[in-house]
Amino acid sequence: MHPEDHKAILEVRERVLLMEERQRAIMQMLEQSLSRYADLHNRVASLEVLKHKVWGMVAVIGFLFTIVWELIKSRLK
Questions:
Q1: Rounded CA gap, 68 and 66, in Å?
Q2: How wide is the angle at C-alpha 10 spanned by C-alphas 24 and 16, nearest 5°?
Q3: What stretches of 1-77 show up as alpha helix (H) in DSSP?
Q4: Which SS3 state, helix, strand or coil, does residue 34 take?
Q5: C-alpha closest to that of 10 among 1, 26, 22
Q6: Closest by alpha carbon to 62, among 52, 73, 54, 50?
Q7: The whole model's pTM is what?
Q8: Nearest-CA neighbor of 33 among 45, 41, 22?
């Protein structure tokens, strides 16, 4: 094997190692991004549940106020 061939092999090996390192960094960034997305999705889902509970409470309170108001109106007549 010529010294030039050995040098070329070492250069290719270095480039492959750099590519693998970059690939690991990109994979780590993707994993972090997906983790953050999942966290955000969970927060939005819990806010949706809270929104539905609040709307339910508002509907019940509105219904109760309507009944009370109708009772007050009927007694005032």
A1: 5
A2: 20
A3: 3-76
A4: helix
A5: 1
A6: 54
A7: 0.58
A8: 41
Quote the CA–CA distance of 39 and 77 in Å, as a whole number.
57
- The DSSP output letter for 56 is H
Spatial separation of the C-alpha atoms in residues 59 and 72, rounded to whole Å: 20
Q: How far does Cα 71 stand from its chain's mean position?
A: 48
Residues 25-65: pLDDT tens digits? 999 999 999 999 999 999 999 999 999 999 999 999 999 99
Please give the biggest Cα pair distance in the chain.
112
- State phi, psi for 54 to the nearest 5 degrees: -65, -45
Encode pLDDT of 5-19 as tens digits.
888 999 999 999 999
